[in-house]
Design a protein that fits this description.
184 residues; alpha/beta; Oxidized Rhodanese, domain 1; 2 domains; 8 helices; 47% helix; Inner membrane protein YgaP
């Protein structure tokens, strides 16, 4: 898999138009993103659609960025698995881009998905215990179900609850604040 550091990407951006996609959740993207990136969340990433929307620039590299480099690496692998080799993972992600003093867009902040997930799982677990104690012992199954879901997520890397939370209205960009462009 090809990689590039943020300074080299910024230099390339100064010479020619570059295509950068940010694969974080829309709310993460809205909070802060590289000025030149457009949002294509990993959860809904369709490599064929992304490449088809590039309007004849499919021969140029597609740069993929996230917060720190892990999700963008996953996204690059998704593109490679779909037969698209000219994808480049941006090392260090948006954190490195911002730290290097490169142009970013800052907007509305919200709770990060992991924190939303912790609040939801914790609340449902406590609710199951309280209902089991005061309503019916069978409600302990709610806490067991949440615990089993967390174990499943830890073992597989896929969390259905997290995916559902990511689709909630407050985690979407509905104000058009999820676009960007990179040009020389």
């Amino acid at each position: 898999m090809q990689t590039i550091d943020v300074k080299r990407l910024a230099e390339a951006q100064g010479r020619t138009e570059v295509d950068v996609i940010d694969v974080r959740m829309p709310t993460e993207y809205r909070a802060v993103h590289a000025e030149c990136a457009r949002n294509v969340p990993l959860e809904s990433l369709d490599p064929r659609r992304v490449m088809a929307e590039r309007n004849g620039s499919a021969d140029r590299p597609l740069y993929v960025i996230c917060r720190g480099g892990n999700r963008s690496k996953q996204a690059c692998q998704t593109f490679i698995d779909a037969g698209f080799e000219n994808v480049v993972n941006v090392e260090g992600g948006t954190l490195a881009w911002d730290k290097a003093g490169l142009p970013v867009v800052r907007g509305k902040k919200s709770l990060p998905l992991p924190q939303q997930m912790q609040i939801t799982a914790g609340t449902l677990t406590v609710l199951g215990v309280v209902l089991a104690q005061f309503v019916h012992p069978a409600f302990v199954a709610l806490s067991a179900f949440i615990g089993a879901g967390l174990v499943f997520a830890g073992l597989t890397g896929y969390c259905p609850m997290s995916s559902m939370i990511a689709k909630m209205p407050w985690n979407q960009c509905v104000d058009g604040g999820c676009e960007g462009s990179c040009s020389a």
